[in-house]
Here is the input.
Amino acid sequence: MKINASRSSSTRLDRSRHAAPQVFEQLREMILSLELAPGTVLSRADLATRYGLSQTPVRDALMKLGEEGLVDIFPQHATVVSQINVTSALQAHFLRRSIELEVVRTLTEQRDAALINRLRETIVGQAELLDLKNYEQFSLLDQAFHRQMYKAAGVPQLWDLVRRLSGHIDRLRRLHLPVEGKTMDVVRDHTKIVDAIEQGDVEAAQEALRNHLSGTLNQIDQIRTSHPNFLADD
Here is the structure.
């Protein structure tokens, strides 16, 4: 599979900003959403044409994607969207779980009513999308839910760190999201987390979080069966 350089839907760039970070951000989101599936060939020349740029910022963007393990770069040959590395996904999950267990502990001790209201509003937004199967917007609200918690706990930079390291597990979650009942499970999990925070129950909040974050990893075998060419173990 090869990316179509003639597409124009994602090529707009803010000319007041450096080009390479914008190309990186757009390609990264396309990879995480699986719009660019594992195995897609990314031609530097085609991307330069698509974005109306020289090849230098495109090369820089691809190198940064390579640093995150989202593309495999074969010098003088091709750049290919990488398979989903299960080992990397497991490590990213371990890191995120470790951090967020402390995040929910902090929030449960604070019991900030304004934060609780904001989190519930985000859950309502997700619930409204259940019947629409708008997985892209649902995923954005899922990220917003967790980002709000990191910010309220005073560790927003750790959210940025987790996001940088979560490319493989994010793609697993995106494959899992359309499975029947998964989006409802997410809404239910988020509600349990917020209920426990509001009640000041640290143990319940942490248990709800553990269950929430482990849902996709418990389905790896099924995801592998459905998408055998997308996953790699190392």
About this structure: The first strand starts at residue 41 and ends at 42.
